[in-house]
Structure formats: C-alpha cells, structure tokens
Amino acid sequence: MAGFNGTIPYQLGNLSQLAFLDLSRTRVFEFGIEFERGGKRYSPSLVWTEKLRKLKYLSLSGVVLNMTGKQLEGPLSHLHNLQHLHLADCMLSGHIPNAIQNLTFLSHLHLGSNSFEGSMPLWLANMTRLVSLSFYGSQLNGSFPLSLSNLPTLKKLNLGGNNLLSGNLRQILCRDWSQLTVFILYRSSVIGSIPSCITNISTLVIFDLGSIKKMEGFIPSFIGNLFNLRNLYLDGNLLKGEIPSSLGQISSLSILYLSGNLLSGTIPFQLGELSSLESLYLNDNQLQGNFFLSFFQNLTTIYALDLSNNELTVIIESDWIPTIYFEYLYLASCNISGIIPPFISTQYRLTSLDLSNNSMFGNIPDWLGMLPNLNNLNLSYNILEGLVPYSFNISNFNLLDLHSNKLQGPLPISSMSLGLRLLDLSQNEFKGSIAVDIGNLLPNIQFLSFSANDLSGEIPSSIGLLQQMEVLDLSKNKLSGKIPSSITKCSTLKILNLANAGLIGEIPYNIGMLSSLGSLHLNGNMLKGNLPSSLKNCSSLQILDLADNLFYGNIPLWLGQFSELMMLVLRSNKFEGHIPHQLSNLSSLHVLDISHNSLIGGIPPQLATLISMRNSTLGISHGNGGSFYYYEERIQVFNKRLKMEYVRSVMLLITCIDLSSNKLSGNIPPAIGNLKGLHTLNLSDNRLTGEIPSNFGMLKELESLDLSNNKLHGKIPNEMLQVFSLSFFIVSNNMLCGKIPEGNQFNTFNSTFFSGNPYLCGFPVNKKSCRCGERSSYNMPSPLPKKEDDGVEIPWHWYVEWMASAAVGFWGVFGILAIKRQWRRKFIQVLDEMVINLLNGLINR
Predict the structure, then answer these.
(1) What is d(CA 414, CA 407) in angstroms, rounded to the nearest whole number?
(2) How many Å separate Cα 303 from the centre of its chain?
(3) Neighbours of 342 (CB within 10 A)
(4) Which of 546, 641, 766, 810 is deepest in the core (most CB within 10 A)?
(5) Residue 704 contacts residue 725 (beta carbons within 8 Å)
(6) Number of Cβ atoms within 10 Å of the Cβ of 814
(7) DSSP alpha helices (H): ranges in 219-278?
C-alpha cells in the first residue's frame, strides 16, 4: 500500500499483514486514529501499531503525535522488522527513544523537525545497517557524534538546523566517510574551515555547510576535486577571498550557493562552463568588476540566478537575444543603468524578477506586465517615471514592489488585482484618492503601502474588508477625514502607519480589536481626544508613536501593562496631570518621549527601574513583534536637539528618556543614576529645582544630557568627569554655581552649554573666580535674539534648528556606526566638534 485516500477500509486484523504503511499524507478516521490532510493531523495514541509486526516501512511524518520519547518506547518495541522509520515533524519531545536501537534491520531513520532533548545517543553507532540518518532541526545539542563515521553503510547524514550542535570541521570531516553521498550540517555551531581531507569523500553529491557563521577562511581550491558534487551550499558564513576557478571542474554541479559571505574579486569565467548548472546564488558578497550577463549564454539549464548586493556592474547588451530562460532572476544593486533591459521580454518562464536599487529610468514597458508567469516583481529604488501601463496584468502578481521611483497618475489598482499579497507603491508621485471599493479589489493583500505620495480624500470604509492584511502604511499623504472605525475589523493587522497623513478626529474607540497589533504610528496628524481604553487590549504593542497631535487628558495608567513596548512617543500633545509611575513596568522600553506636553508634578523615581535602561549592554534580541518581514520600521527621536530617524536595526541600540518642555517640578530623583544603559536624557524646559545628582556619574553610557532652562542650583558634580561617553552636556539658564569640572570631555564643551548661570566659573566661561552659596536670587536671563538686515528678530534656537537639518543628512548616512560603540563615540565626537564650532561662530557675531 503506497498510502491511503480517505478512510481505511480494513479491520485492524488485516493491517497486521502490512509491510508498507505511509500515513503522512493521509486522512484516516478509524481505530481511534485521526489524521487530516493539509494543516495539522492528530493521533491520540499508537497502540494500533502493536499488531503490525511484519511492517518494514512506517511513515507518520507531519502527524502531530505530541508524544515524548518515553511514550514511543512501547509502540516501537513491537516493530522488529522495521527498515524505514519516518517520524519527522511529529511534535516529539524528550529524549530519543532507546527502543530504536533494538530495530536491528533499520536502514532509514528520519526524526527531523522535532524537539528532542540532549545529545544524540551513542548507540546509534551500533546500528550498522543504517543507510540514511536525519535529525534536521531537532534542537539537539552537545558535540557532533564522530562515531557515526564507523557506520559502514551510511550514505546520507542530515544533522542541519541544530544550532547547539558543536564540533570542529577538521575533526568531523577527516574521518572515514567513504560511502557518504549527502552531508548536511547547515545552521549548526561547528567551527573551523574546510579541511583538505574533504577530497577523501569523493562520493559526495550534496554538501551543505550553510549558515554556520563560525566557519571562516577561504573556499579552498581543492574543493574542485569533488567531481561527483551536484549541490554545494556554503552560504551565510564568513568566507572571504575569491571564488576558486576550480569549481568549474565539477561538471556535475547543478546548485551553487555562495551568498551572504565576504567573497571578493571577480566572478571566474570557469563558472560559465558548468553545463549542468541550474541555480547560482552569489548575492550579498563583495564581488567586483564589470560582468556581462551574456557570460551565461551557454548554460542552457540555468533557471535561477542571484547577483544582488555586490559591488558588481552588470552589463546587459541592448541587442542581446538569449538562449537561456530564467525562472528566478535577481539583479538588485547591480549598477544597471538605462531602460529596463529588453531581453527580459523573451523570458516567458520568468516567475520572479528583482531589478531594485539600480539606475534604470524611463517608463515601465507594456510587455513587462504581459509575461505569462511573472508573479513577483521588484523595481523599487530606480528612477522610473510615467504611468504604470494599463496592460499591466496585476492579477498575475503575488508581489509587486514599485516604491521609490517617480511614477505618476492614479493608483494602478483595478478588478485585476485579486491575487496580490504584497503591494508597495510608496515614495512615488501618485495622485488622486484611494479606490472606494479597495476592500473588494485586494481581498488577499497582506502588505499594502501607499506611503509618501500625493494622495487625497478619505480612507474608504471598505478597508475593513482586508481580512488578511498584516501591514497598512498610508503615511505621508494629504488625506482627510477620520480613521474609519471599520479598520478595527482587520484582525490580522500587525503594523498600522497613518503618520503625517492629514487625519482628524479621534482614534476609533474599539481599536483594541486589533489584538495582534505590534506597531502603531499615528504621529503628525490632527487627532484629538483621550486615548481609548480599548487600546490596552493590544498587548503585543512594541511601538506606539502618537507624537504631534492634539490628544489631551491624563496619560493612562494602563500604558504600563505593555510588557513588550519598546518605543513610547507621546511628544507634542496636550497631555496633563502627573507622569504615572506605572510606566516603570515597561520592562522592554528603550525610548520614552513624553516631551512638549503640560505634565506637572515630580519625576517618578520609579522610572529608575526600567529594566532595558538599567543594563549597559542593550538587549537587541527582540523579535519583530510578528511584523511582516518586508516592512522597514522607522521612528523619530530627538537626540542632542537634533531630530534623528532610526530604522529598527539601530533603534534597539539606543535608550532615551525625554521629559522636556513640560511643567515638571521638584528635584531630579537620584535613582535615575541607576539607568546605566541610558544614552540620552533630556529634562530641559521644566521647573526642576535642587542639585544635579552626583550619582549621574554612574551613567557610563550617557552621550547626551540636557538640563537647560530649569531652576537647578548648586555645583556641577565632579563625578560627571567619569562619564567619558558624554559629548553633549547643556545646563544653560539655571542657577548653578562654582567651578566647572576640568578635564576629559569637559575640555571640549562650548561656553554656550553653560550660559545663563552667572555664578559658574572656569573653562569655558572664562570667569576666574566665583562663589557658591552666598549669591542672592536672580532672574534667569533669556537668550538674546539675533537680527537679520531687515530688522526681524531671529531666535537663537533658529540657528540650532538650521544646523540640525544639515546634520540629519550626515547622521542618516552614517547612522549604522551606532552598531559598534567605539565607532559611534568617535563619530559623535567629530559631529559635536562641528556643532560647537558653529555655535562659537554664532555667539561671536
């Protein structure tokens, strides 16, 4: 029996004569067994196997057994004649059942995609009939079992996907694997480089050491001696140097994955002689030089090619008529210029095409949308213009990404869009309104972005019909009206970005129905009212940005319930009342910005317990909150009085508290000094009194501290000299006195950082003496305005803001330097010197 179709028509007694039983793709309701095709399949027990004593082949792969190894001992103990046992993806746990070692005829054992505990048992080395052994993705740990090389008939070994499995590549491969044809060890924790002894395994057909990360060195030239090799996977490692030309000697090679390494040099011409080559992935390396795509002209079997994200310049002759037909062609970031290459019109087999991040211009040709099998198209980050052709048969597409071009006209959505799952038309010049019946036109959409266009009109209520949507981004448009309440019916929504969209009214009261929401951007609108209490049902929120609106009332206490919240931005609203101490429960918080409101009272000392800000080593292991992988999260934070925009990969490297421009009073809680992972602290423009806490010297990661425009008194604590990372320290317009600390970073600060404190002395304010404690009260001076030639007064902060605009571009280019701390500090020091020099110039005018 090669499997079943429907219900088993036999009684259990008849099954006892079976030699072959494959239930992995079967739906069965009999004998207390329940299997279901498609999705999950279940079996309450395996007692029915006791009668199958003549069984030689058993496959239950994909059936949710949900059993431990100990529970499997009994059912397996009766199957003495078993030769093939396939229990992959069965939700097995615990230890690998010992009963397997008694199956003396077993030749094929496949237990992958389970959750076993511990290491592989030693008794596996005694199963001398094993031909094929697979434990891929089974969470095994410990050392690679070297004794497996003693199995005389072992041909296929798959231990990939066990990222806790350790060992040394030389020790593993330099053993007697004379029969081995398949060796798979991807995504493990082995270390070392590929040893020369690999050539002793001349029988290898599939060799997979992908995504090991700890494998380094070069791709050795002797790997070209593996003449039987068909599939070679070395992707996702730290391999460097050139691609060896000896790979061209492996005439049988059909799949070659070298992507995601540090490979440099040119692509060797010998690869163009691999007559059996079908898939070539060289993307995400540092390959260089000009490369003619016609180089592959003679590889008639090739159907997949990825050269993306290198330093290559791919040249495609305009008159090239290829004799090869791709199914997957990825040429992103390949310095391709000119119009969309005409040869693509011949690629009738093409299903996926990526030409993003090149320099292509002109219109999108009509023929591109007519390719019969094309369903994934990415033309983003080019200079394409004009209308999307009417001939574009969008119904064929699963993914269509045209963002960051200069495309115009109305949104290209019609009744032909039914199959789309991802549509990104952002950062173009589309005009007009969103189709009223968009909910009927895109029923299968999961990712939808019209951001940064010139769209107008209201968000149609039919948006609520998009029941599979995970990401909706309509930000940076000229929309009008309210957020439709129907949007709360999009129960799968994980990211909602309506920032700077021109919206008015209140947040829908039942927004809590979006229980899967991980990111909510409503900043930069004219929204008002209290925050709806139903929002607390969005317990998966990681980013909440409501800045620059008209929200009022108290900051809700229930905001402290969001245990996964990393970014809370309520800047520039009309919130009043006290800062709720419940915010200290936000254990994942990296950014707290509630500046520019009307908050009163003291700073809650409980904020010092914010866990993610107490550690000097930031936790950057947060997941994407269920966010759709294609979406690039961004958030704006003020740092050193500059508005900085951070992408997600960087935003988790910063910690920030901004309580500025409120009506806060009282002393600064000394406990804030316990936030040792804090990078930015802004308490300026409040009514704070008391002294600067001396334990601020414990803030070793602090880069920016702004205490200006308060009523602080006393001395600047000398302990601040210990904060070596501090590059922006402004205490202007307070009532501070005494000598400014000397040395270290304080020698780089400008006098403007200390202005408005008449009783401060020392460098850089150029006062030789001052007294602290005997002065009389005085009014804080205001900064003197500057005048242009026309007599209009220009506030001093206008110049700072002007400089900020220039600096944002500088920071945007080099923001990735934030990943490495010492690079970041050096870069910040250079930037600060620039700002200080500019301020000096303004002060001396």
Answers:
(1) 17
(2) 29
(3) 16
(4) 546
(5) no
(6) 14
(7) none
Q: Please, are residues 227 and 252 in contact by the beta-carbon 8 Å criterion?
A: yes
pLDDT at 770: 80
Q: Which two tokens stand for residue 260?
A: 């995601």
113 secondary structure, DSSP code = S
Please tell me the predicted confidence (pLDDT) of residue 606: 95
Residue 387, Ramachandran bin (φ over 0: left; ψ between -120 and 50: alpha; else beta): beta
Higher per-residue confidence, 773 vs 163: 163
Q: Record the tokens describing residue 124, joined without a space.
A: 């596996």
Residue 256 is given by DSSP the state E
Helix (H) or strand (E) holding 671: none
Mutual angle of helices 821-843 and 796-814, in 10-degree steps: 150
Integer Cα distance of 793 and 796 in angstroms: 9
β-pair type (704-706, 728-730):
parallel
> Which of 44-58, 179-193, 441-455 has the lowest average pLDDT?
44-58
Q: What is the DSSP string of 597-651?
A: SEEEEPPPGGGGG-HHHH-SS-------TT--TT---EEEEEETTEEEEEEHHHH
Residue 413: pLDDT over 90: no
Left (φ > 0), alpha (ψ -120 to 50) or beta: where does 32 sit?
left
How far apart are the C-alpha atoms of 302 and 424, rounded to whole Å?
30
CA dist 53 and 12 (Å) reads: 12
- Tell me how far apart the alpha carbons of residues 162 and 112 are, in angstroms, rounded to a whole number: 10
What phi, psi does 248 have (nearest 5°)? -70, -10
CA dihedral 734, 738, 739, 741 (to 10 degrees): -60
Angle at the Cα of 346 (from 342 to 348), degrees rounded to 5? 135
Q: b vs e for 510-527, b when ≥16 Cβ sit within 10 Å of the residue's Cβ? A: ebbbbebbbbbbbbbbeb
pLDDT exceeds cutoff 90 at 653: no
Domains by residue range for the chain, with CATH? 550-843 (3.80.10.10)
* Exposure on the CB side of residue 578, measured as CA atoms within 13 A: 11
679 vs 670: CA distance, rounded Å:
17
- Do residues 86 and 61 lie in contact, with contact meaning Cβ atoms separated by under 8 Å? yes
50 and 73 Cβ atoms separated by less than 8 Å? no
Separation of first and last alpha carbons in the chain = 93
SS3 447: strand
Tokens of 167: 């060992």
Q: Which long-range contacts (CB under 8 A, 24 or more apart) does 772-779 make?
A: 772/714, 772/715, 772/737, 772/738, 773/737, 775/737, 777/735, 778/735
Nearest CA to 726 out of 659, 679, 687 is that of: 679
Residues 751-786: tens digit of each pLDDT: 999 999 989 998 898 776 787 765 434 444 444 333
pLDDT tens digits, one per residue of 97-154:
999 999 999 999 999 999 999 999 999 999 999 999 999 999 999 999 999 999 999 9
Query: To the nearest 10°, the Cα dihedral for 354, 360, 364, 366?
Result: -80
Residue 166's Cα: distance from chain center in Å?
27
Rg over alpha carbons for the chain, rounded to the nearest Å, is 33
Length of the chain, please?
A: 845
